[in-house]
Write a structure and sequence with these properties.
With 104 residues, this protein is mainly alpha-helical. It contains three helices and two strands, in the order ααββα. It has a domain of 43 residues. The longest helix is centred in the N-terminal third of the chain and has 25 residues.
């Protein structure tokens, strides 16, 4: 087919465009298949009874017991470092001493 001398060419190489489209489609198909082959997914069927019991309640009870221990410690005297002579005093007494300016 002869080109008409007055019609301007659009500059598109249709052969290269076709090769690019074919390669892109090939990659879009090949890459997921290759990934599925290299990294297979194990399918596990689960029954309703297979799931573990929730542990949140146990954790909440443990946290409550720990909080009670900490509150009890804040309200009593005790040793922090007996060899170093460091003690802890009840929180209320410590606040009063700080407000009076009586600090060690």
């Amino acid at each position: 087919m002869r080109k008409h001398p007055l019609i301007e060419s659009n500059g598109i190489d249709h052969k290269a465009l076709g090769i690019g489209v074919v390669l892109t489609i090939g990659l879009l198909i090949t890459v997921p298949l290759l990934l599925a082959f290299l990294f297979p997914v194990e399918r596990v069927s689960r029954k309703p009874g297979d799931f573990p019991e929730p542990t949140l309640r146990v954790q909440a009870e443990q946290l409550k017991a720990r909080e009670e221990e900490q509150l009890e410690r804040l309200q009593m005297y005790g040793w922090v470092d007996k060899a170093g002579g460091i003690v802890h005093i009840p929180l209320a007494q410590a606040e009063e001493r700080l407000l009076k300016g009586d600090t060690p």
